[in-house]
# Entry
Amino acid sequence: MFDHLVVGAGFAGAVVAERLASQLGKKVLIIDKRPHIGGNAYDRLDEAGILIHEYGPHIFHTGSARIFQYLSQFTAWRPYEHRVIASVDGKLVPFPINVDTVNVLYGTDLNEEEVEALFRDRAEPIAHPKTSEDAVVSKIGRELYEKFFRGYTRKMWGLDPSELDASVAARVPARTNRDDRYFTDEFQAMPLEGFTRMFERMLAHPNITVRLKTDYREIDAGEYREMIYTGPVDAFFDHRFGKLPYRSIDFRFETHDVPVFQPGAVVNYPNDHDYTRITEFKYLTGQVHDKTTVVYEYPTADGDPYYPVPRPENAELYRKYKELADQTPHVRFVGRLATYRYYNMDQVVGQALATFDQIARSRPSLEISDIDRRVSDVDLGPADALQPPKRGRKSAAA
Ligand code: FAD
Ligand code: UDP
# Structure
């Protein structure tokens, strides 16, 4: 008999399982229908011995000291600041758009103030930007929107940016300085021995049993008291209200017999090819090898659910499932698929830590002082799990 069944061994499931076992002494069964732990962050050595991310490039970044410190119990880090190049009009330019992007693209030599003025001149006034098209056009105008955002977004989502929430394109806002990092979070680093090794350490607790290649429907309800579910929420309810759209990706891996394939970690192709981007893993992992492996991403409607699709009708449908989820006794829904949120890894960790806090606080048999002590073990810093990242700070990761 287990206290908890955790469905899914990705970030959401692994964090809750680890906390329940190590902080409350609970007996936890964690299962995954895949043959490995780590969820979509799973990495492994390929046939050439190069560390690859099976489900696409995963770069860790967070503005939360609490989340960074929590994960630091299970891994050392390699400082890494991610940079992306966009291939536009036959030129390779920094992305997100910054001063250098504008200058290379137009053959100009504008300074920061002049680029700011250029954006101001081109921006179309939109009082309340609702869509991803609004979000970009209202900041930098239509021409740059069409060069960098429209084609990429159509490929990525199978939708025009005017059909997607502003929050999607707002993930990569244009800049009027020369910062060419993809993220500006305070903590930017990759797990030194990879994500899978980190998950192995999280789940190594003697109270945790891991069962792979197992669907939760195969587990007898008599085997556990409470479930933590991290799979797609609509699948849990047999798609009762209809399918929630999730975007998927076909990954095409290639190993090349050269040490370096392309000039940076990621090259985005907003307007050419069927793929959105090519990632070369050795830049992310720092691995030294005479060969190199890259991955091409081809977005698709079918396949494993990877991305919730942020738009109003989907939010409406999700609300119905959420209501049902809230009324379902003895089951908690956590993670990117279970709460239908376009969350990064750190946000999922924050959500999972918050869920653990709720479980810990709802235990009637513990003295309040005991609960506070156990919960404060988790509070390694300010409770800022879901706060927006602090901007413009140098990396403090080490
Ligand atoms: P998942 O990792 O999806 O784990 C859920 C698990 O549940 C899966 O392993 C699944 O097999 C299992 N499961 C589902 N149904 C069942 C069932 N019925 N029975 C048993 N098991 C089940 N985030 C970043 O911070 N940085 C990045 O650079 C980044 N890049 C990304 C690139 C891509 C291509 C994708 C798809 C995502 C990226 N993310 C990135 C987001 C990151 O992958 C997620 O935030 C995180 O992995 C979500 O963790 P999770 O535990 O919620 O879900
Ligand atoms: N985007 C774009 N052009 C780019 C990169 C991103 O239009 O060159 C838009 C696109 O809609 C994309 C979104 O910004 O889906 C978020 O990009 P991000 O790199 O954060 O996507 P992820 O890494 O989550 O796939």
